[in-house]
Amino acid sequence: MKKRVVASAAALALAAAGLAGWYGSRTTAAAAKTAARPPIAVGIAKVAAEDLPIELNATGNVTAIEKVEVKPQVSGMVAKVHVKEGQNVAPGQLLFTLDAAAETAQLKKAQAQTLSDQAQLKNAERDLARSRDLLAKNFVSQSVVDANQSKADALSATVAADRAQVEAARAALDYKTLRASIGGRIGVISVYPGTLAQPGMAAPMLTITRIHPINATFTLPERELGAVRAAQAAGKLLVRATLPDSGDSVDGKLVFIDSAVDSANGTLTLKAEFSNQDGRLWPGQFVTVSLNAGRYQQAATIPVAALLTGPEGKFSYAVQADGSVKRAPVELLAIHKEKAVVKGLRVGDAVVSNGGLNLRPGDKVRAASAGPASGGQ
Fold first, then answer.
1. Does the keyword Signal apply (predicted)?
2. For the chain, what percent of residues have pLDDT higher than 70?
3. How far is CA 310 from CA 186, 231, 316, 330, 376, in A?
4. Which CATH architecture has domain 38-51+297-367?
5. CA neighbor of 339 nearest in space, from 102, 9, 120, 46
6. Does the predicted TM-score (pTM) go above 0.85?
7. Measuring CA to CA, which of 19, 32, 36, 93 is 20 to 30 A from 165?
8. Does domain 67-207 fall into CATH 3.40.50.2000?
């Protein structure tokens, strides 16, 4: 029995040795095949050091600095519309007149009552003056003077109340005329003569939008905040809005940086103001906002095509001395005219600028064509 166990172990040992020899031959063959494969032709560029402008681009939405929806404070029938759609108005300009017959009558009634009570007050003051003279001559008692004084005081209070009623009636009458609180352009008018206007109406009677100056709201990554604030403090920050349809651009200034970064997406909201005297920017329009925030000094640049994205982020294939490539993680700082400003590469390093999508780490490459030192293929 013992001899049979020994024989089985020997057989297993021989089988394992044969299997190891077979795998070893396969591995050696694969390595030899890889070594025999010719280098892959790719574009190769050198990492260059250049002075480039810091240009930050974002999509902005044009927004009005002031926008007012006109609604009545009291109910009333629209008697007259004094403006037209699309018209420019000045602050205080008359927009609508509501029917004010009842308010006008109430004002006249209050004014008439005031005049009546004022006449009675004057008569009471004269009686008070006469009673004081008679008291000095001992023709009347003090009680008569006191009674006249009380009557004059009561009428004086009545006149004051009448004046308050007049002011209230005048205010109610003023509510029947609606004027522009700001200057701007009138939008759609939703009411016409004969329409019942009410404070709780859903749609405004009209909207006034101030279009000059005007703002453009946009967002930037939080990493750009330092460059923006430094350029703004130095007075060197230039802001430009470009229209997508015509390509026309207008210059403005940065007027607002939000007080906090949006933690959900790591962006910061900013606003730029443009004079817009020619009216080229329109509320609700989308524009490309460009900020010139100074210059990068001797920044490392590579062609944009050399920048790849993988599961772990952005990288480039760096070419080693033996012609093999390896992944080099990089941080993208900016893109300017097909050049990427990056961190993570040294000036003078060779990177694959064309054909990197077909490579794997360790592949051998050769230059398909010579490229300029500034980053060409």
1. yes
2. 88
3. 52, 33, 10, 11, 23
4. Beta Barrel (2.40)
5. 46
6. no
7. 93
8. no
